[in-house]
Amino acid sequence: MLKLTVVAAMAAASLAAQGMTPDAEKQLARDIYKQFVEIQSGYTTGATTPVAEAAAARLKAAGFAESDLFLGGAIPTKGNLVARYRGTGARKPILLLAHTDVVEAKREDWSMDPFQFVERDGYFYGRGTGDDKAQAAVWIANLIRYKRESFRPDRDIIVALTADEEGGGPYNGVRWLLKNHPEKIDAEFALNEGGWGEIAHGRKIANDVQVSEKYVIDFRLEVRNKGGHSSLPVPDNAIYHLAGGLDRLAKFGFPLKTNAVTAAYFGAMAKIESGPAGSDLAQVAQGSHEAMERVAALSAAWNATLRTTCVATQIEGGHARNALPQLAAANVNCRVLPEDSVEYVESTLKKIVADEEVNISVSHEVVKGPASPMRPDLFQAVSRITDTMWPGVPSVPMMVMGATDGLYLRAAGIPTYGVQGFFFDRDDIRFHGRDERMGVTAFYEGQAFLYQLVKSLAK
Ligand SMILES: [Zn+2]
Question: Given the DSSP bridges, would you call strands 189-192 and 69-73 parallel, antiparallel or unpaired?
């Protein structure tokens, strides 16, 4: 019996050495994942509090002190959980973030019940299986595993499961915590969603680390005019002023450039992309302007990576078919590189529109965070673990066009990195869409990846 136990322990140790997760730990993560997915936490109609409470109950049962678990939120239904795993305190804490709200999902739009966790044909199906309940479940399961293994980190590990990332708004958990309990999530840096593994044509090609995000500025372009009868037109016409300005904007492109993150991204992509594009990408990484022109013309995503963009998204104007317009207005949505300022974008727009009649103003609140620094400890750990688990797969730093709650943390001075180690087919990303899913193997691999990553960053 003793012999058997020893053999089992040795087998477990060698499993751990290869980076594989023991079955009991996988089962725990799966149970938590299922529980989270089946709680209806839709952004507009659901509640995140039951997710926070379920996670807290599991941690309590695993031996976490009540005083290390904090539940609270902007309103009773939009609860957040902050759990602290105590370390020696030698270094400042690390924050592990995941949001627990999901985009709404209607039964009739799906081929199955979106709030029923289903395993089928090698995938886990359900709303939130990708965005973002897998990471939430893994953070909790791994905390419990660290506890069971008596892992003693050199810094506190804080897990925050938060409300209302999807669409943000007044109940956003990260903003609420930063405003009301900043000390609870204060950390040297944070890990979050926003970067995942990419599969192309069935092959793993990159493990992405999201380092920065573009930020959003909405401008209102507005022309007011005294108007008059449409039978007596004059050149001074509100719609024509606006149209002229938008036409000049349509033909304009902000300067192409790279920064530390995007240069590293193009450098890594150059190795992945074969053919002529590959050499252009390498030249972009070196700062070649001609290559940037060619690469920007190849793909909307690369274009958006290389420059600030501004595009007209809505128009309004006129009040009658037979009247000269008294109002013409447009919304122009800009996605701005972290190094470009609001003032720069606004003054550039004014220069391009070049019409005094067109009033240009910022129409919505702007939240701007700096890019996170390319921390060598983090990037080395990510590359090392990535290379061990998936030999030959590079880890690629990214700037993304969308926004996550990482924006608020970066703005508050907590550098944030989107990294998951969950691999998805890049041509079949179902976040926010129908039949959202996660590969069963991808889930367990991400669990093992994050388990090791956090451990190596905290000792
Ligand atoms: Zn998300």
Answer: unpaired
DSSP state of 41: -
Please tell me the distance from the alpha carbon of residue 395 to that of residue 164, in angstroms, as a whole number.
29
Q: Collapse the DSSP code of 20 into the 3-class scheme (helix H, G, I; strand E, B; otherwise coil) and give the result.
A: coil
164 CA from centroid of ligand 1 (Å): 9
How many angstroms separate the CA atoms of 99 and 175, rounded? 12
CA 275 to centroid of ligand 1, rounded, Å: 34
Distance 300 CA to ligand 1 centre (A): 22
Contact status, residue 318 vs residue 325, Cβ threshold 8 Å? yes
Residue 426 pLDDT: 84
Tell how far the Cα of 440 is from the centroid of ligand 1, in angstroms. 19
Give the tens place of pLDDT for each residue, 132-181. 999 999 999 999 999 999 999 999 999 999 999 997 789 999 999 999 99
Alpha carbon separation from 77 to 45, 73, 135, 372, 417 (Å, rounded): 10, 8, 21, 32, 28
Residue 103 near residue 217, CB atoms below 8 Å: no
Q: State the distance from the centre of ligand 1 to the C-alpha of 360, rounded, in angstroms.
A: 32
- Which parts of 175-326 are beta strand (E)? 189-192, 197-200, 203-213, 215-224, 228-229, 309-317, 323-324
Per residue in 370-397, pLDDT (tens digit) is 889 999 999 999 999 999 999 999 999 9
Give the DSSP H/E element, type plus range, for residue 310.
strand 309-317
